[in-house]
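Shape is hard to put into words, and the shape of a protein is harder than most. The fold becomes a row of whole numbers, each drawn from a learned catalogue of backbone shapes. The outcome of that step, for a single protein, is printed below.
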Amino acid sequence: MASSFKNIWYSGQYVFVWIGGLGLRPHTEGHLPLQISELKNHSVLQALTAEANAWEPRGSRASMDQPGQLISFSEALQHFQTVDLSSFKKRIQPTIRRTGLAALRHYLFGPPKLHQGLREERDLVLTIAQCGLDSQDPMHGRVLQTIYKKLTGSKFDCALHGDHWEDLGFQGTNPATDLRGAGFLALLHLLYLVMDSKTLLMAREILRLSRHHIQQFPFCLMSVNITRIAIQALREECLSRECNRQQKVIPVVNSFYAATFLRLAHVWRTQHKTISDSGFVLKDLEMSAKKSPRRLLKTLETYLAGVSKGQGSLLGTQKCSGPQAPHSKDLTFTGVCDLPSHLSEGTWLI
């Protein structure tokens, strides 16, 4: 059973769901209650829909009967490596600024600095996190289509606005509204997850867990939060040692994201967490991930090795959906903003 999380807001670095009350959601401008197939022979309606849909690329629209080509992670990354991102790069703060005792403690006991030759790659990661969705760039649409097809198993293109994005755990009908603090990097991470056969299995298992009749959570919004944790870990130099060891940044950040998501799913399932625990779970996850990134990466390696042998599984035979699954309005959610002040210190903004 697909869950719909329509009443969601941001607090600090996390995205939270408010359940109860009226829970009114503003009407999405430009969202037409018509099937795409109904518009094929109506040129005026086609033009109006293309204008209203902020995600429609220039040129002709891909037909539902002629699915677009999937895009690989490397192809999407290459796109960002070849376009002018100078205006976005000006916004980044590559490392956390520390002063006083915090700076001294970090200098004496903190992780090593990132090698000079890797800093351009690090800056690219942080710059992509500043980029939003570009309605004039067909590549962005291909990324969304690829994520949708891989997660759902569909062979056909979907509308780039619609309730099907809520079914995957976005806030509403337009995924563009959920990327604050993580930018397009959040979508690249999902793309990375679904385009490898082993991590795709993991992604589908986590999606399945997110639809559990009791333990449900918004899959894609949770993924965005994991990307934010990865961004912060990179800026705090928690990943520098591993990046220096591998002489790479992007693969390390990708693996760290996947490993953190895997850890969240493990904690969520084994400790029987629900949506009301999400604020605490995310905060604890952030602290542990930044403290021991190497251990986290080893856990991912072990899991993926098991997948290769047909042994890796997060859920086993656990029942993850059913007719008794509660609606979103029946859930009570506690976010970081509701935590006692001594537990919510140290929250961050990207």
Observations:
- Residues 119 and 296 are 23 Å apart (CA to CA).
- The two ends are 33 Å apart (CA to CA).
- The first strand starts at residue 8 and ends at 11.
- Confidence is low (pLDDT under 50) at residues 1-66, 317-350.
